[in-house]
Amino acid sequence: MRTTLTLDPDLAAALKARAKKTGASWKDVVNEAIRAGLRAQPAEPREPYRTPTHDAGTFALSGVHSVEEWLTYAEGEDPK
Questions:
Q1: Are 42 and 35 in contact (CB under 8 A)?
Q2: Phi, psi (rounded to 5 degrees) for 44
Q3: pTM of the entire structure?
């Protein structure tokens, strides 16, 4: 299959150096690098990471309903 692929410059340089060192074609070096990367992936998808939660209780300012009110309170003024 023919496709267009944009590589980062450092990756392209490393692949070109590998092709020159081994005498393999650019196509073969790129294909083998992709195959090696795919083999290194786990066969089974991992369980998604879940961020632990903590109940912080009720808010001290339950009557504050907007960012403007929170900022007013944070600046030491009465939000009402």
A1: no
A2: -100, 140
A3: 0.51
Q: Which two tokens stand for residue 46?
A: 């991992």
Quote the pLDDT of residue 26. Answer: 92
Nearest to 15 by CA among 31, 35, 37, 38: 31
Tokens representing 41 are 């992936």
Determine the Cα–Cα distance for residues 4 and 27; give it in Å rounded to an integer: 12
Average pLDDT per consecutive 10 residues, the chain (80 residues; last block may be shorter): 92 96 95 92 82 79 71 75
- Distance in angstroms between the alpha carbons of the first and the last residue of the chain: 67
What totals of helices (H) and strands (E) does the chain contain, helices first? 3, 0
